[in-house]
Design brief:
CATH class: Alpha Beta
Helix content: 10-25%
Oligomer: single chain
Number of domains: 1
Number of strands: 11
Shape: globular
Radius of gyration: 16 Å
Length: 195
């Protein structure tokens, strides 16, 4: 069982993280070496609306096992979850779950993949005191990203709708408290271990 410790991600740590984004799989699923710096720059901007939901916070952490950084995870928080249909002819917000929501993204150091760190990071982020008010955690994953899909399923996430959206993304979600049930398809510093 893996245990990770999440600590705030700081600009001085970019040199630890940027090389992970040279990896072809990381670039394919998340972005290139500029991505971590862009996330830090975004943290300095005022909160705004995104896809029909009001931002309530932005958080970024490095995941550590002992003295080694093994991954990066962030969570943008919102007043509610919205299902967005963008692109040409898109209708905008087509569904809402009226619960405080967090949208996570993550990357594991390529040299440390397939060792349970992803699930440990996702589990740890849901236990962060800053996110105690969040009732629905989500992550958008392209269906072909089998490693990320497996990570989320192990962490107790389930697809909100198994069909990819117009961008080819399936959104996985996990409620943190008993909240009725998942809506029907189409409706719309802590330490944690993983299995």
């Amino acid at each position: 069982m893996r245990c990770v410790r999440l600590q705030p991600f700081e600009r001085k740590q970019l040199s630890l993280v940027e090389p992970w984004f040279l990896d072809a799989d990381t670039q394919r699923w998340l972005g290139g070496p500029a991505w971590p710096r862009q996330m830090l720059d975004l943290a300095d901007r005022p909160l705004a609306e995104f896809r029909g939901a009001a931002e309530t916070g932005r958080y970024r952490w490095l995941a550590w096992e002992h003295d080694k950084a093994v991954g990066y995870i962030d969570c943008g928080t919102y007043d509610r979850w919205t299902t967005w249909e963008g692109g040409p002819g898109g209708r905008g917000v087509i569904g809402t779950i009226p619960r405080p929501a967090g949208s996570i993204s993550y990357v594991v150091d390529p040299a440390s993949r397939c060792r349970g760190y992803c699930t440990a990071m996702v589990t740890a982020v849901m236990a962060m005191p800053e996110l105690a008010h969040i009732r629905l955690f989500t992550a958008g994953v392209e269906a072909a990203n089998a490693g990320s899909v497996g990570c989320l399923l192990k962490a107790g996430f389930r697809p909100l709708n198994p069909e990819p959206d117009r961008e080819g993304v399936v959104y996985y979600a996990r409620f943190t408290i008993s909240c009725d049930a998942y809506p029907p398809a189409g409706d719309s510093h802590q330490t944690a271990g993983s299995g």
